[in-house]
Amino acid sequence: MIRKVLLGIGGTPFCQAAVRRAVEICQHHDATLTAVTTIDEERLRYVGAVPLGGGGAATMLREHRVSATRELLDQALEQVELICDEAGVTLSVHRSGRQPMA
User: Fold this and answer.
1) How many domains does the chain have?
2) Nearby residues of 58 by Cβ (< 8 Å), 6 or more positions away
3) Residue 54 belongs to a domain
4) b/e per residue 28-59 (b: at least 16 CB within 10 A)
5) Per-residue pLDDT for 68 more than 80?
6) Any domain includes 25
7) What is the pLDDT of residue 10?
8) pLDDT tens profile 16-54
9) In what order do the strands lie in the sheet with 4-9?
10) 77 lies in which domain range?
11) CATH number of the domain to which 58 belongs
């Protein structure tokens, strides 16, 4: 019997399908769901070589990438919470600033 299900949330288009499947497993086994955000901010902030005079644009790009990704994650987590509430599944959320090691 499964007691806990761990689900990585990355804000991708496949997230909702993964959430629904994880919730089905939790319902079947009366398990709890733990959602972990999986973004690598260091990789998002890397924009490559920046030409002279491009530092300001590079900084804006870095911040845009991080804020856009965080926004997608927030939307994904809202969906997870909604789906879990509707299904009666206990949810805990852990936000990680780094991608887990493979």
Assistant:
1) 1
2) 47, 50
3) yes
4) eeebebebebbbebeebeeeeeeeeeeeeeee
5) yes
6) yes
7) 80
8) 899 999 999 999 999 999 999 878 888 888 999 999 999
9) 4-9, 32-37, 91-94
10) 4-94
11) 3.40.50.620
